[in-house]
């Protein structure tokens, strides 16, 4: 059986083709999906999405969203997503440092919420950029 | 044209020509280096001149041959620019259309999933922060304008709309704050410090806009978020509209707030089952087919958590759509404004050429008269 993965963001389609296996960071921890998975719907956290194509692993930085798995079709709706190959590691590292500085300066409930979200996004991008594809 | 009137006109023109040629030559002799500058000034003065001249008829053009030539050249240049801008805008409208189309798979799937989950969750009592309806004390208005001018009344209309909305809110005794998106709106509100503006954003900063709106609402700083943008109806029609962004209504129903009517008459609430069509001259509304989920579908988390993940996505796509529509309207407005400007330039050039030819004719007639008169005097 083949497994189809479709990663959608409001702007564009990030991924739409056949895969062997994926590892998805959901709100209740990471799950691996192989063909013939039971149909589930899950919220997706800000984190890495790992895709296996034959023997190659690819990494996508996924900024939260929603996933629906069923009938060997995976649909992931993301706020934003970036392939690890499209991320510049140095730029991501700088963005992370800026985000950390912003969080330490944040005052009030609202700024803390914003800064925390930004920090998590920046951290995910750095992780994705540094992930080795094996 | 009869011969008598043309000869009278020629005489008058010849007299005028003599005086204007005098002044022109003396000026250019005295200040030869300033000529390019004068030319520039003339170009800038053209637009008001255009109105006056058109009101008074073509006879109101009173200047020498050289000035006329310069004016014709400058009108020609302006026409080239406006035509180029029109073409660029047309090409960009196409691109904006493509952006909407490429965002379609996302919104279609999202609507499908939301619809299904709502069906399944209808029986349960779900409480999600983004759908919580609170008594409205403060409203955030997200005003979407353009980044550039030269697009007719596009920016003015939406700013007027925002002003009138602010007036309504203060009449109801409700506080408000603004999030301004777009350079034109930013500079307008920066000049008016008495308007409370929470943040100035650029067009194309979707993540920032979303985070801002999200944080404002969740931290209970504001109790309602309204989106003011220009809805793209067709290439020649665009309406400024007010849209309630938050609280989201999970079932697409109208939320009434404590009997206080904060919603404007043209306020559109979300209807999750319908979705805007792509940007064509006619606006089509497509009802996304909503096939039922397989009944054995399991929720990995609580339904609340799933909705918590889905509704921000929905918010995202709503804001994105508003920005895209606003951009498309701006480009369409620029296209028609530039097309009008080109038409005006063509007309102006035509009437200026007529005046120019007439004066040239008059000058030749005058010279012939002089020669003939001189020959007559000799004999």
UniProtKB/TrEMBL annotation, chain A:
<keyword id="KW-0406">Ion transport</keyword>
<keyword id="KW-0934">Plastid</keyword>
<dbReference type="Pfam" id="PF02823">
    <property type="entry name" value="ATP-synt_DE_N"/>
</dbReference>
<feature type="domain" description="ATP synthase epsilon subunit C-terminal">
    <location>
        <begin position="86"/>
        <end position="129"/>
    </location>
</feature>
<protein>
    <submittedName>
        <fullName>ATP synthase CF1 epsilon subunit</fullName>
    </submittedName>
</protein>
<dbReference type="InterPro" id="IPR020547">
    <property type="entry name" value="ATP_synth_F1_esu_C"/>
</dbReference>
<comment type="similarity">
    <text>Belongs to the ATPase epsilon chain family.</text>
</comment>
<dbReference type="InterPro" id="IPR001469">
    <property type="entry name" value="ATP_synth_F1_dsu/esu"/>
</dbReference>
<dbReference type="GO" id="GO:0046933">
    <property type="term" value="F:proton-transporting ATP synthase activity, rotational mechanism"/>
</dbReference>
<keyword id="KW-0813">Transport</keyword>
<dbReference type="InterPro" id="IPR020546">
    <property type="entry name" value="ATP_synth_F1_dsu/esu_N"/>
</dbReference>
<keyword id="KW-0375">Hydrogen ion transport</keyword>
<keyword id="KW-0472">Membrane</keyword>
<keyword id="KW-0793">Thylakoid</keyword>
<keyword id="KW-0066">ATP synthesis</keyword>
<dbReference type="InterPro" id="IPR036771">
    <property type="entry name" value="ATPsynth_dsu/esu_N"/>
</dbReference>
<keyword id="KW-0139">CF(1)</keyword>
<dbReference type="GO" id="GO:0045259">
    <property type="term" value="C:proton-transporting ATP synthase complex"/>
</dbReference>
<keyword id="KW-0150">Chloroplast</keyword>
<dbReference type="Pfam" id="PF00401">
    <property type="entry name" value="ATP-synt_DE"/>
</dbReference>
<feature type="domain" description="ATP synthase F1 complex delta/epsilon subunit N-terminal">
    <location>
        <begin position="3"/>
        <end position="81"/>
    </location>
</feature>
Automatic annotation (TrEMBL), chain B:
<comment type="function">
    <text>Produces ATP from ADP in the presence of a proton gradient across the membrane. The gamma chain is believed to be important in regulating ATPase activity and the flow of protons through the CF(0) complex.</text>
</comment>
<comment type="similarity">
    <text>Belongs to the ATPase gamma chain family.</text>
</comment>
<dbReference type="GO" id="GO:0045259">
    <property type="term" value="C:proton-transporting ATP synthase complex"/>
</dbReference>
<keyword id="KW-0066">ATP synthesis</keyword>
<keyword id="KW-0472">Membrane</keyword>
<keyword id="KW-0406">Ion transport</keyword>
<dbReference type="Pfam" id="PF00231">
    <property type="entry name" value="ATP-synt"/>
</dbReference>
<dbReference type="GO" id="GO:0046933">
    <property type="term" value="F:proton-transporting ATP synthase activity, rotational mechanism"/>
</dbReference>
<keyword id="KW-0375">Hydrogen ion transport</keyword>
<protein>
    <recommendedName>
        <fullName>F-ATPase gamma subunit</fullName>
    </recommendedName>
</protein>
<dbReference type="InterPro" id="IPR035968">
    <property type="entry name" value="ATP_synth_F1_ATPase_gsu"/>
</dbReference>
<dbReference type="GO" id="GO:0009535">
    <property type="term" value="C:chloroplast thylakoid membrane"/>
</dbReference>
<dbReference type="InterPro" id="IPR000131">
    <property type="entry name" value="ATP_synth_F1_gsu"/>
</dbReference>
<keyword id="KW-0813">Transport</keyword>
<keyword id="KW-0139">CF(1)</keyword>
<dbReference type="InterPro" id="IPR023632">
    <property type="entry name" value="ATP_synth_F1_gsu_CS"/>
</dbReference>
<comment type="subunit">
    <text>F-type ATPases have 2 components, CF(1) - the catalytic core - and CF(0) - the membrane proton channel. CF(1) has five subunits: alpha(3), beta(3), gamma(1), delta(1), epsilon(1). CF(0) has four main subunits: a, b, b' and c.</text>
</comment>
């Amino acid at each position: 059986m083949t497994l189809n993965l479709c990663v959608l963001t409001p702007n564009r389609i990030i991924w739409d083709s056949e895969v062997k296996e994926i590892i998805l960071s959901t709100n209740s921890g990471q799950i691996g999906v192989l063909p013939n998975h039971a149909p589930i719907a899950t919220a997706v956290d800000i984190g890495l999405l790992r895709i296996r194509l034959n023997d190659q692993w690819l990494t996508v930085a996924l900024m939260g969203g929603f996933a629906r798995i069923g009938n060997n079709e995976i649909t992931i709706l993301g706020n934003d997503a970036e392939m690890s190959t499209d991320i510049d590691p140095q730029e991501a590292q700088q963005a992370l440092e800026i985000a950390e500085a912003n969080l330490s300066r944040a005052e009030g409930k609202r700024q803390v919420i914003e800064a925390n979200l930004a920090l998590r996004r920046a951290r995910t991008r750095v992780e994705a950029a540094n992930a080795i594809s094996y | 044209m009869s011969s008598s009137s043309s000869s009278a006109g020629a005489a008058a023109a010849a007299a005028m020509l003599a005086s204007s040629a005098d002044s022109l030559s003396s000026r250019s002799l005295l200040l030869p280096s300033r000529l390019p500058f004068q030319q520039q000034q003339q170009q800038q003065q053209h637009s008001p001149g255009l109105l006056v001249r058109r009101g008074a008829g073509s006879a109101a053009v009173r200047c020498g041959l050289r000035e006329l030539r310069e004016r014709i050249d400058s009108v020609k240049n302006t026409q080239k620019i406006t035509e180029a801008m029109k073409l660029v805008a047309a090409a960009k409208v196409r691109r904006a259309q493509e952006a909407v189309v490429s965002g379609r798979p996302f919104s279609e799937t999202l609507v499908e999933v939301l619809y299904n989950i709502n069906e399944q969750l209808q029986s349960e009592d779900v409480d999600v922060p983004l759908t919580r309806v609170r008594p409205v004390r403060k409203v955030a208005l997200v005003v979407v304008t353009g980044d550039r001018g030269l697009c007719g009344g596009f920016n003015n209309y939406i700013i007027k709309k925002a002003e009138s909305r602010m007036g309504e809110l203060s009449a109801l005794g409700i506080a408000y704050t603004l999030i301004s998106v777009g350079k034109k709106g930013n500079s307008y509100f920066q000049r008016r410090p008495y308007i409370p503006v929470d943040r100035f954003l650029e067009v194309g900063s979707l993540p920032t806009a979303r985070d801002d709106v999200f944080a404002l609402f969740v931290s209970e700083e504001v109790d309602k978020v309204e989106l003011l943008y220009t809805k793209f109806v067709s290439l020649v029609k665009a309406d400024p509209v007010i849209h309630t962004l938050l609280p989201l209504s999970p079932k697409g129903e109208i939320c009434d707030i404590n009997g206080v009517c904060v919603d404007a008459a043209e306020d559109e609430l979300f209807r999750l089952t319908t979705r805007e069509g792509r940007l064509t001259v006619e606006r089509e509304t497509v009802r996304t087919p909503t096939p039922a989920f397989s009944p054995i579908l399991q929720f990995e988390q609580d339904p609340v958590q799933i909705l918590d993940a889905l509704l921000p996505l929905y918010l995202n796509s709503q804001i994105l759509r508003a920005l895209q529509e606003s951009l498309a309207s701006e480009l369409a407005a620029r296209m028609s404004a530039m097309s009008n400007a080109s038409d005006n330039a063509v007309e102006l050039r035509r009437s200026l050429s007529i005046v120019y030819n007439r004066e040239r004719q008059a000058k030749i007639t005058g010279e012939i008269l002089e020669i003939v008169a001189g020959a007559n005097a000799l004999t």
